[in-house]
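Re: that chain you flagged

S.,

Sorry for the slow reply, it's been a week of failed gels. I finally had a moment to sit down with the sequence you sent. For the record, here it is as I used it:
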Amino acid sequence: MTSPTHSLSLHTSDPVLRPFLAPTFDPTAYLNATLPPLSLSTAPSKSSNTVSLSTFATQTQAHLAQLSAHTARLTGTLTALTDDILRSGARLAYEVEVLRGEAASLAEALTETLRPDVERFVPGGLRIHPQGDRTNSAPTFADARETPGEAQDTDPDPEALTSLRTLRHVRLSLQRIIAIFDTALSWPLPPSALSLSSSLISVTSPSSDTHPSLEVAGQEASSRLKNEISDLLAQGPEEGVLAAEKRVEELRDLVGVWKRTVEEKPRMKFVDGLARTVAERRREVEAKGGLVARERASNGAGVETSKAAGEGGKGFLRNLQRLREEIYLD
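Prediction finished late last night. Pasting the structure tokens below so you have them in one place:
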């Protein structure tokens, strides 16, 4: 029969206390193993481990003092833990009482105060199932459709849920529109570009001192977009071009915000300039790819030529013979 293992805590980790934690602890065996044997003769014996009565009494008192100190320490620890348990029990009982009151208030609100609102989402409302002597229990969904046949005849989604789904779609659409306009506001157009586009109406462009802040903000936005396209192109020969083309298409779609306005033409012109830069980069990448393909093809042709070198003489003679036959036929 194996004895259960006992985990040592911080308070009982002293090696002196380990014998007391054993399930087969025997006080007599413990004292016989701890204290030395007592000599019954008055003359001390050097051949055995026995000690005299005075030495035995001294060692016994020292051992008892050590055990008394451990007992006092463990008693104080046990008292402190008991006080913590009692205080925690009272606090736990208070928290349970508070939670019980909140649960009762919630059940009352769901079944009485908010009953009309709940019935909009749950046909039949909520009902409380009594359990034993409890007056209030957790509310559950009470569906008026009790049989499966009746459940199939009626619509499972109330009208309020349909309205909520519609509102959700409207909210997502508004969020997308707000995001588009936020992006558009972060791309101001410098007045100089706008004046150049309307040169047919006004021969002299307005001075840039009229809107210095708008001019600076517009130039910074243009520079930022150009640097963004340059950074995308620098990412790699293929990945960079694809990312830059995607970004240009996003800007082209963003120009639709200013459709049929005076800013549409200069903005589209700016986007077309970015598109030309990306197109030139794509042509360079494709040219390099074609050069590599031609090099590979030339290497393959060289290998095929070396393989057909032995058949070159025969082919030349056959061509001469075919040419002579054509002359004779003429």
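What I noticed first: The CA atoms of residues 269 and 275 lie 10 Å apart.

Talk soon,
D.
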